[in-house]
Amino acid sequence: MDGANHSVVSEFVFVGLIDSWEIQLLFFVFSSTFYVGSMMGNSLIMLTVTSDPHLHSPMYFLLVSLSFIDLGVSSVISPRMIYDLFRKRKVISFDGCIAQIFFIHFIGGVEMVLLIAMAFDRYVAICKPLHYLTIINQKMCILLSFVAWVIGLTHSVIQLVFVIKLPFCGPNVLDSFYCDFPRLIKLACTDTSSLEFMVIANSGFISLGSFFILIVSYISILITVRKHSSGGSSKALSTLSTHVMVVVLFFGPCIFVYIWPHPNSHLDKYLVVFDAVLTPFFNSLIYTFRNKEMKVAMRKVCSRFIIYRRIS
Q1: Burial of 277 by CB count in 10 Å (0-12 exposed, 13-18 middle, 19+ buried)?
Q2: CA angle at residue 16 from 15 to 17, to 5 degrees?
Q3: CA distance 8 to 99
Q4: From 120, 144, 151, 250, which residue has the greatest number of CB atoms within 10 Å?
Q5: How far apart are alpha carbons 266 and 21 in whole angstroms?
């Protein structure tokens, strides 16, 4: 393998998720359905927002960014997992494994910052409405997106630098269906206790810290909302509850996977399925069916598409 890290392992073998053929078939239908649904839903959100001038606002700009990232979240793990379901020997190359880890943490880091940016947008809109257009403008949206991509890239590269240098001389069996730091570093032919702590500090505490920042910001918004009239409060609370659901769906599995003290537990594998397959789907569903503007705009897009199909 690569002489730089003295590895002799050229590939890793996945144990997989389930052994029963019947359950595999059921899981194949389940995963494929939600994967296609999340791809279509998030693509529709992006198409709707970009094509409707009434949705060209900071909130929807950030929503399009989140939908774009959710397409990546769906595609990093799900296609490979679905493809491997009926393969007897589930193998991934060393380089493929490293690439998967890179994109998991790159995209995950970007999504964390985007969710914080969306919380900041709602905080300013609800708590400082008179200053909203001054604070949240086009330049600020572009800056927030740029910062999200830079932090995601930095977060991923910092961890990956240490893993690439690890020696892997066997065994090469990963008790999982995807590559990630917690299980991979346990296969290294050296003491990795300090590296395991670094992974927890980097991925685990960043996830936990971001979650608490978001919860504190939503509590601040909630306190402000309670001081307003019931009509405005109702709309604000509806928007707020949407964001809280997205945050819990995304951060719950992340916090468990990287901070849970028993990494050999199989529960983390099922939580990753939830994060990779269900969360992107639910994100598109939540932002669509709990937002009147999005529902109206989507009907217009679908109507135009149907008319175009009939004409052609």
Answers
A1: buried
A2: 130
A3: 18
A4: 250
A5: 19
Q: Is the pTM of this model over 0.70?
A: yes
**Scanning the structure block, which residue is given the tokens 């707020």?**
240
Q: What are the residues whose beta carbons fall under 8 Å from the beta carbon of 5, sequence distance 6 or more?
A: 164, 165, 166, 167, 168
Give the pLDDT confidence of 223-278 residue by residue, as tens digits.
877 776 555 556 666 667 777 888 888 888 888 877 765 555 567 777 888 888 88
Give the number of other Cβ atoms within 10 Å of residue 223's Cβ.
Answer: 10
Please report the DSSP string for the chain in residue order. --TTTT----EEEE--S---HHHHHHHHHHHHHHHHHHHHHHHHHHHHHHH-GGG-SHHHHHHHHHHHHHHHHHHHHHHHHHHHTT-SSEEEEHHHHHHHHHHHHHHHHHHHHHHHHHHHHHHHHHH-GGGHHHHS-HHHHHHHHHHHHHHHHHHHHHHHHHHHTS---S--EESSSS--HHHHGGGSSS--HHHHHHHIIIIIHHHHHHHHHHHHHHHHHHHHHHTS-HHHHHHHHHHHHHHHHHHHHHHHHHHHHHH-S-TT-THHHHHHHIIIIIHHHHHHHHHHHT-HHHHHHHHHHHHHHHHHHHH-
Rounded Cα distance, 235 and 63, in Å? 18
Nearest CA-CA partner of 239 in 99, 93, 63, 76: 63
pLDDT, tens digit (0-9, with 9 covering 90-100), for 38-69: 999 999 899 999 988 888 888 899 999 999 99
pLDDT, tens only, 102-157: 999 999 999 999 999 988 998 888 888 888 989 998 899 999 999 999 999 998 99
pLDDT value of residue 69: 93
